[in-house]
Amino acid sequence: MRLANEAGTNYNTARQKLMDDALGGIPLNRPARPEEIADLIAFLVSERASYITGSEYVIDGGTPPTI
Prior knowledge:
This is Peroxisomal trans-2-enoyl-CoA reductase. Pathway: Lipid metabolism. Participates in chain elongation of fatty acids. Catalyzes the reduction of trans-2-enoyl-CoAs of varying chain lengths from 6:1 to 16:1, having maximum activity with 10:1 CoA. Has no 2,4-dienoyl-CoA reductase activity. It is found in: Peroxisome. It catalyses: (2E)-dodecenoyl-CoA + NADPH + H(+) = dodecanoyl-CoA + NADP(+); (2E)-tetradecenoyl-CoA + NADPH + H(+) = tetradecanoyl-CoA + NADP(+); (2E)-hexenoyl-CoA + NADPH + H(+) = hexanoyl-CoA + NADP(+); (2E)-octenoyl-CoA + NADPH + H(+) = octanoyl-CoA + NADP(+). The protein is mainly alpha-helical. The protein has one domain (2-49). The protein is built from three helices and no strands. The protein has helices at residues 2-7, 11-23, 34-44.
């Protein structure tokens, strides 16, 4: 509410702007769904991934790295 008041707008408008700003840096233009993360984890702990000994999996929707 404070952000909305400071911006001279209502809560829903301020919330939408905050979401738009947060999602603007994600090329897929949406946050990850929990099941998208869970699917990778389930695979990695399964027998099907038993030969994987070390890897890095980036689940970031294509967001470029920033400093």
